[in-house]
């Protein structure tokens, strides 16, 4: 089924960060990349056709969105999450990390404390530090291969550090948790209690596996919507990262005013016309493609799980509940992080993301991107098996 995802598309010599910048990123040329979070699959034909039609028009001037753009977003979020968004909440930015940095500056002053939950997507810590805020970590707890939240530490860190802002990763990258309603409400209630604003990065929301459901944090309680900046984008879902478009929803008027003020200070205004075109086409007509993709990714996950159980039992799969980024535990190999990286890169010929870049608790882990053809995933795992067996 869905054999078009099996097709290997040559991405070399396309200015692909994933395939064309190995040497520049300090890696040997020619290794197999399964690191950065973009997919090796062509975006849906509906998106390609819309972009081709726009290209043929031949004029790429300043562009904005009309009511139809918001209506497509509204329908998407209603259909998938029963989340009823309003047009006055929407602020469009070129990316979620851009939005996070904007929100940090809008809602805190230099020296203020910002809380994150490591191991987590590394631009979170980079964004906090780059904006000269105090980084506070509520480390996730690995309980027998499933990560949970230490709520006592969460509240204690907020109180002791006078935390002003919490960056939530939901679903969580890289540990793959799709937070339950109870977990989200637990964090939200603590944030309400102490006046903490929440940036909820929900860019991976469309990728959940069977049996798991994504809840929009802002929508769980009316009070949450008043403290939350919700970050969404079509870029992970439809492989559009290079088109730089995200949709940020901010119901609180004062928070939105501060957020937009920071955007103006940064000199940013209109979106990329191709990003607008792609987003609108994807959310309008891409549902079936996404459904097929999720089936294929589930197959890749099953393949990975079975391969590890049969041939690499030393490497433990942290079962993902969402995302196409999988967290692997290499602790049983008994290697230092430096030797583990050498094994992955120089012996297995693979480019994964080292767990250490995700912060506290990332030691001994690697993140692998399974959004590739099954044959590429198999090749990577065979190379990894050979390298481990050579130890």
Explain what you see.
The protein is of the alpha/beta class. It folds into 2 domains: 3-44 and 287-389, Alpha-Beta Complex (Aspartate Aminotransferase, domain 1); 59-285, Aspartate Aminotransferase, domain 2 (3-Layer(aba) Sandwich). It is 41% helix and 15% strand. It has 14 helices and 15 strands. The protein has helices spanning 17-20, 45-57, 67-81, 96-107, 123-130, 151-161, 181-193, 222-225, 235-238, 253-265, 273-285, 287-311, 337-347, 374-389; strands at 32-33, 90-93, 113-116, 134-137, 141-143, 146-148, 163-169, 197-201, 228-232, 246-249, 316-318, 325-329, 350-351, 353-354, 365-369. The chain has a 7-stranded mixed beta sheet with strand order 2-10-9-8-7-3-4, sandwiched between helices. Strands 11-12-15-14 form a 4-stranded antiparallel beta sheet, covered by helices on one side. Helix 6 runs parallel beside helix 7. The longest helix has 25 residues, at 287-311. The two termini are 38 Å apart. The model has no long low-confidence stretch (mean pLDDT 97).
Helicity, as a percent range = 40-55%
Averaged pLDDT, please?
Answer: 97
Corresponding CATH architecture of the largest domain: 3-Layer(aba) Sandwich
Low-confidence stretches: none
The rough form would be described as globular
Number of domains: 2
CATH domain fold name of the largest domain: Aspartate Aminotransferase, domain 2
Q: Describe the largest sheet.
A: 7 strands, mixed
Approximately how much beta-strand content do the residues carry?
5-15%
Overview features:
391 residues; alpha/beta; Aspartate Aminotransferase, domain 2; four-stranded antiparallel β-sheet; 14 helices
């Amino acid at each position: 089924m869905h054999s078009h995802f099996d097709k290997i598309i040559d991405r070399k010599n396309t200015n692909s960060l994933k395939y064309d910048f190995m040497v520049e990123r300090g890696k040997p040329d020619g290794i197999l990349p399964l690191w950065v979070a973009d997919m090796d699959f062509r975006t849906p034909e509906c998106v390609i056709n819309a972009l081709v039609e726009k290209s043929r028009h031949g004029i790429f001037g300043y562009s904005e969105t009309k009511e139809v753009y918001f209506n497509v977003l509204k329908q998407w979020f209603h259909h998938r999450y029963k989340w009823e968004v309003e047009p006055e909440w929407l602020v469009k930015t070129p990316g979620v990390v851009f939005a996070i940095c904007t929100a940090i500056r809008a809602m805190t002053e230099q020296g203020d404390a910002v809380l994150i939950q490591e191991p987590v997507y590394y631009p979170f810590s980079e964004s906090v530090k780059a904006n000269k805020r105090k980084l506070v970590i509520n480390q996730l707890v690995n309980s027998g291969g499933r990560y949970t939240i230490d709520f006592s530490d969460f509240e204690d860190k907020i109180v002791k550090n006078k935390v002003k802002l919490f960056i939530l990763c939901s679903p969580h990258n890289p540990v793959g948790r799709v937070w339950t309603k109870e977990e989200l409400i637990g964090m939200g209630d603590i944030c309400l209690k102490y006046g903490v604003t929440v940036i909820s990065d929900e860019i991976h929301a469309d990728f959940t596996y069977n049996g798991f459901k994504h809840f929009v944090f802002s929508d769980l309680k009316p009070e949450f919507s008043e403290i939350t900046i919700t970050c969404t984008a079509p870029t992970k879902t439809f492989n559009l990262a290079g088109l730089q478009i995200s949709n940020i929803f901010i119901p609180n008027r004062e928070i939105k005013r501060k957020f937009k003020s920071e955007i103006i200070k940064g000199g940013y205004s209109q979106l990329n016309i191709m990003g607008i075109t792609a987003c609108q086409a994807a959310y309008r007509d891409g549902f079936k493609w996404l459904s097929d993709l999720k089936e294929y990714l589930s197959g890749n996950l099953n393949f990975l799980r079975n391969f590890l159980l049969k041939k690499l039992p030393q490497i433990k799969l942290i079962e993902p509940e969402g995302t196409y980024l999988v967290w692997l535990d290499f602790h049983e190999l008994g290697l230092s992080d430096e030797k583990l990286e050498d094994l992955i890169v120089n012996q297995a010929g693979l480019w994964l993301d080292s767990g250490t870049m995700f912060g506290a608790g990332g030691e001994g882990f690697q993140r692998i991107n399974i959004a590739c053809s099954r044959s590429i995933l198999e090749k990577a795992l065979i190379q990894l098996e050979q390298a481990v067996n050579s130890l």
